[in-house]
Amino acid sequence: MYEGVIQDLIDELGRLPGVGPKSAQRIAFHLLQADPVDVRRLADVLVEVKARVKFCTTCFNVSEDDQCRICRDPRRDPTVLCVVEEYKDVVAIERTREFKGRYHVLGGAISPIDGIGPDQLRIRELLTRLADGTITEVILATDPNLEGEATATYLTRMLREFGLRITRLASGLPVGGDLEYADEVTLGRAFAGRRSADD
Ligand SMILES: [Zn+2]
Questions:
Q1: Nearby residues of 158 by Cβ (< 8 Å), 6 or more positions away
Q2: Residue 76 in contact with residue 67, Cβ under 8 Å?
Q3: Rounded CA gap, 164 and 81, in Å?
Q4: Alpha carbon separation from 191 to 83, 129, 139 (Å, rounded)
Q5: How far apart are CA 106 and CA 126, in angstroms?
Q6: 68 C-alpha vs ligand 1 centroid, how far in Å?
Q7: Average pLDDT over residues 119-136
Q8: Running DSSP on this structure, what letter comes out for residue 133?
Q9: Distance CA 82, CA 106 (A)
Q10: How many other CB atoms are found less than 10 A from the CB of residue 164?
Q11: Model confidence pLDDT, tens digit, residues 161-189
């Protein structure tokens, strides 16, 4: 244990994902020795990112405006919607350059152990988007793990009544992992080879 504010810093850093107690201590001491100007810049960007970055009111991707860049882009196909868990998945899919439609970010996956059910995800908002019939295909691009599969199965059932084409990414993605960890080529292939979710 350290004194006062140093321990506060270590505690705060230790609450970040993937930062264990040792790393938190290492980062804290790095900051203590760093140039005040560099530390100030880090502090400013932390405050600024919370103040400026919002979620797109349509797809819930991160955005600095009410609508994100992808939703505003008239060249993106409005009839195909790709449903993902997190906005980092949008980044991963965009990198493949395989997809020209729009997105819907659920904000997670169904996980009873973590107390996350359908009501905690942006499923109601998804159903609202489908109501006017513009969207004719929904690609379920949830993570290839237990929670992602459960979410996709749930959505397939929910969406059946809309009479859409519902597809899943082709197999070949590393099972048990996150979509974002798949390399571009594999993810691109999984997109191109997507299959009906009703099979
Ligand atoms: Zn958007």
A1: 123, 127
A2: no
A3: 11
A4: 12, 22, 9
A5: 8
A6: 4
A7: 95
A8: S
A9: 11
A10: 16
A11: 898 999 988 766 666 667 777 778 888 88
Report how far ligand 1's centroid is from the alpha carbon of 134 (Å): 16
Q: If DSSP states are collapsed to H, E and C, what string results for 62-129?
A: EECCCCCHHHHCCCCCCCEEEEECCHHHHHHHHHHCCCCCEEEECCCCCEHHHCECHHHCCHHHHHHH
Q: Angle formed by the axes of helices 87-96 and 184-192, to 10°? A: 90
The CA 103 to ligand 1 mean position distance, Å, reads 7
- How do the residues of the chain divide into helix, strand and coil, expressed in percent and rounded to 5? 50, 15, 40
pTM summary value: 0.78
